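Bench notes, bay 3.
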Amino acid sequence: LVLFDSDYSAFSFKKKSEVGIYMHSSSLNGILYSTSSPLESIEKLTLHTGRMKPLPKWITRGGVLGLQGGTERVMEIYKLVKSYNASVSGIWLQDWVGKRHLKEYSRLWWTWEVDQNYYPEWQQMRETLEADGVRILTYINPFLVDASEKPGFKRNLFQEAKDKNLLLRNSITGDVISAGEISFGAGLVDFSQPKAKEWYKKVIQQNMFNETGTSGFMADFGEGVDLENILLENGFSGFQYHNLYPTQWSQICSEAAQEYFQDKDEIVFFTRSGYMDTPKYTRLLWAGDQLQSWDTKVGLGSAIKALISSGISGYQMGHSEIGGYHAIQRFIFNYVRDEELTLRWMEFSAFNAIFRSHEGDLPEKSMQIYSNEKLLAAYAKFSHVYAAWGEYREFLMKEAHEKGYPLIRHLYLHYPNDPLTIKKKYQFLVGSDLLVAPVLNPGIFVVEVYFPLNTEETWVNIWNGEEIQGCGCYKNLKSKIGEPPVFYKKGSVWGQKFIEELRLRNVIS
């Protein structure tokens, strides 16, 4: 069932024989279809959701380093990472706009201008990196803050938008709605107005593409429209518009890039929020802000489930941030990533659509990919593991665009007749030819891996060449840090190419 309405809806799966649907509307519009296989279902679904375009080659050659702190610090860490022979395709600088330091934490200045105090030689830094084959990525969201308190600002976009009546307002008071979770107050651009969409596209084009030369960006948030008491030009209620907003946000980012670069558009932006037809516009999904923990509900396990389930829901390409984002160190809570979690998350991320790190919201307390020699060496190794399946990834991205199949796939998609595959939440396939079983707990060096039932198939361990038949059974396998359970299908052209590339890159002998 595909619903075309944007109204608030809830699905109930409490009864095995039926699915209950609640709609905050007097009508329900959608399409009900049946298929002969799970992959065919996804193919039909994505005719409605849209299909994501293949990523440009520049971003899939290596890892995207998430760094911050200004030109000197960024270049120092980049050179350190490169000294370990890491494959790096980009550096993501979320703090290109500078930071405002509040009582208990710091926040980015949502003013969307290069902060010359943080990055006084921005263009020189960009040119130096590009000469090394590395591109810069930045950050933006649909919020604006008053820049009047920020030294050296050029344009106060918040004031401009407020004066032009381009911000969401309360339908009762007429006041600009301040984002509830943001303690310093921020206005949300009202994309229900065509003129607001065009204005924000120009902000992206001028302030990001023209002034920074960015090759991509995180398009954050998008889920913040209130359900009640908002004034919308299109006449919708908050219950109708809440789900449309993230799709419009992706559409604005996509159109800004296409209109600016025309047929030379190689911009990669990634989003965390969306609705039914967001895949039509966004270039890449990211799994949101996981807790820096092993937890299966909000930590590493949740990132794995998010990418597997989003693939079934119409998002072909996704990734999570190495090590997670949120750190908590307060009272009895201590969720700050350590070395082992960072290493195991790298192992998983090497089989995502892109291989991207993030310093997190408490970078001074969290372990980083550059914190010690072991982490630096591991990052370098798995940047090459990621790059080594690049040719296979290109094939899968083309298939994703043509058929809607995700890169990361639930076992059930290829083995629907095996009754045990439907229960596998954390193992996944990359395409049909790689089988990955991430390590989900600390101190675990033997992992129970399930091999789907197909006696005509044999799976080969990429680290030691061990062969295991498709037995429909579990095997307890060694999984030391740096060698997670990863298998390729024997006889697979893509599997063999992967192995050959790993050897060329000195990852395996």
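Next record in the batch:
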Amino acid sequence: LLCGVPFAVKDMEDAQGLSTSYGSTVFKDKNIAENDSPQVARLKRAGGILIGKTNTPIFGSTALCHNRAFGTTRNPWDLSRTPGGSSGGSAAAVAARLLPIATAADGGGSIRIPA
């Protein structure tokens, strides 16, 4: 279905061979995933090509997409702003047209806030 469409993964879920930092300096470059999360596995099976991870606040715990490990995610249309929510990195990547698809999760507004 996806036939080579690139996608990125929110840095709160595993993608085999990539670090899952949860936006934390403690896990940055250390927590290498041995397997894909179910969502990543499904996207790959559908023909998607994983190109990387997107930023998230530490442990997805705040409505501002900033952490000490990777810094602040900026809104690509207004760099004085940040996309809110823990899926802000995914929202910014898609808005900047870096790729057409990025994973996200919405436990407390993480997709709705950046939208």
